[in-house]
Amino acid sequence: MTWPSPRAVALCRILLGLAALMNTVEIHAILGRVRDGALAMPGPVQLALTQTAVSAWTLTAMTSAILVLVGLLTTPAALAGSATCLTAMLWDQQAYTNHFWLTTLLLAYLAFAGSDNVWSVSSLFGQRTRATSLPVLLMVTQLSVCYLFGALAKINPWWLAGDELRAQLLTPLPEVVGGHLPRSSS
To answer: Of 9, 46, 115, 121, which has the fewest CB atoms closer than 10 Å, so is most exposed?
Structure first.
């Protein structure tokens, strides 16, 4: 068995393409609200936020995400997807979210991973590339760091006692899990 597995890298490509599509819908809505006069928090690069610019950004982001998803021209599509993500974050600070930044980084790594070897349109035409280990290792490392710090952030008395979760619940917890049952008036 070789590492990285071509199927595992292809699955990663497909899931990252889906994530990029969902992020595009989310960021399109944010940029639309900013364009329509909502509170703007301009990024470090002052770019005109017009209907045409937002539409062009959305079309480019959607096209690159779909190409990554189906595995056609994956390297340029992943680079274009990463560039459109970065452009949105430079456009307005409200476009920045942790998952959007993670998608930006993973798309950049995916561009060099050779992820269109299997389960792709490119592989149907006999265009095969070998999955390379360094970009895949960078992707695994990036996700490991993300989950490690997420787990470390939860090691505190409030999270471990359930206070954070309890504040999010609409109904009281039973006594057995740290809450109390509402008393009946009978």
So the answer is: 46
